[in-house]
Specification:
- 3 copies of one chain form a homotrimer.
- By secondary structure, chain A is α/β, with parallel strands linked by helices.
- In chain A, 38% of the residues lie in helices and 17% in strands.
- Chain A contains 7 helices and 7 strands.
- In chain A, helix 2 links the parallel strand 3 and strand 4.
- In chain A, helix 2 runs parallel beside helix 5.
- The relative contact order of chain A is 0.22.
- At the B-C interface, helix 1, helix 2, helix 4 and strand 7 of B face strand 2, helix 3, helix 6, helix 7 and strand 7 of C.
Chain lengths: 178, 178, 178
Amino acid sequence: MAEKMGVLTVESPAKEELQKTSGLSMVVFSGDLDKVLAAFIIANGAAAMDLPVNMFFTFWGLNVLRIDGSTTLAKPKTMMEKMFGWMMPKGPNKLTLSKMNMGGLGTMLMKKEMVKKNVYDLPKLIRTAQEQNVRLIACTMSMDIMGIRKEELLSGIGFGGVGTFIDAADRSRMTLFI
Amino acid sequence: MAEKMGVLTVESPAKEELQKTSGLSMVVFSGDLDKVLAAFIIANGAAAMDLPVNMFFTFWGLNVLRIDGSTTLAKPKTMMEKMFGWMMPKGPNKLTLSKMNMGGLGTMLMKKEMVKKNVYDLPKLIRTAQEQNVRLIACTMSMDIMGIRKEELLSGIGFGGVGTFIDAADRSRMTLFI
Amino acid sequence: MAEKMGVLTVESPAKEELQKTSGLSMVVFSGDLDKVLAAFIIANGAAAMDLPVNMFFTFWGLNVLRIDGSTTLAKPKTMMEKMFGWMMPKGPNKLTLSKMNMGGLGTMLMKKEMVKKNVYDLPKLIRTAQEQNVRLIACTMSMDIMGIRKEELLSGIGFGGVGTFIDAADRSRMTLFI
């Protein structure tokens, strides 16, 4: 890294290193409404401050990206894959709180309070994130295990494996696992 | 970033970038005793190593900062806000374990073991953090949703929104979501 | 940090700062199969990209490192320590999912799908991590509280307190709490 510059020896400032660490990369592992809300509020906050943001959805977090409706699949699902699909919440409106869900009552009350206090709901936070160019990436390995197909997920998202996440995170100033 | 310096072109080392990334910023989302203990042990450890530490309390994490006692509120609470207040643990002594709580028995046994093994309990960890100038910040948006007022929280803490967190985290070397 | 260089004043690029921040440090707090799988997939992914990786196991995460079998202990356990030992899962094969465990059925089905989709199981992911020189560190304070002894844990791991984690994390580009 040392470069001769005339008679002076100057350590080159490894500028690429610096320039590449900016913004936020997060793993969204959870599919709980409260944690996913926190993830998108942080993501939108960072994006509003002009920072690049990557959200990598894996395991239960994949449910956030699911479309609520039936889709014609190119490749039929196995029995097990269908079961996973039925048991997991289909999209942002179906997620529930990690605490005080109380059979859905707690989740409903929390959503009501959010409306009353003028806080964006999850579908709107997701749209805003997409409008602000937050990169939403679905983990292909989790999709494979759970039998979730690209056709079943939100349009405009990316797909990638763990390498995609590491690569993004290694260029980010902030990293979170949610 | 390139600056002409006499005949030599030197890339400026973006030193502000470097200098500003130090220390630790964490989101304390959880209100589970075990996770909050981990958060404060990490925070105090970093502070003891002279690193700046920011703890941003949001959602269930806000309960950590609640005072256990009645307070006269400037603005009365709605029914819903009162309900949230009753259902959530009021302060560090009321938190329970995320696992093996067993109706409070597991939490009690864990606390006993901590005393026996000379590990600080949560109230003492919080006091130590404040003494070590760890910045405790309550998320105003979560306070608004849950109807928690400033008068109901520990004194000496700060208040802020997601921008406050991002700003602190972007200047930190380490970021955690707990 | 400013150095006189002939007539030019150049800010030295604080290169040590740069060089020391590389790789990934994570706290593995959770002992849930799904979260621990995610932790090891991310760790192995980063290690495969030649990045230094530190995994710090604390609280329930310690269970990942436990050997499933009886061990002769140098110092006998107290009744309470024995109880903790019995109630917590002993090693990677005993962990269960954080969601949809359904008395073990969900965990079994998930493991079956992972075999079918050619995803490494947890014991293999741990071995791979060790082969790739991922540093596995057991939190000595948690070991003390829970009464877990070194003889009861996987060989080839390190031991340390919160300072060990902070020190590693402060040299890492990426930090996660899982």
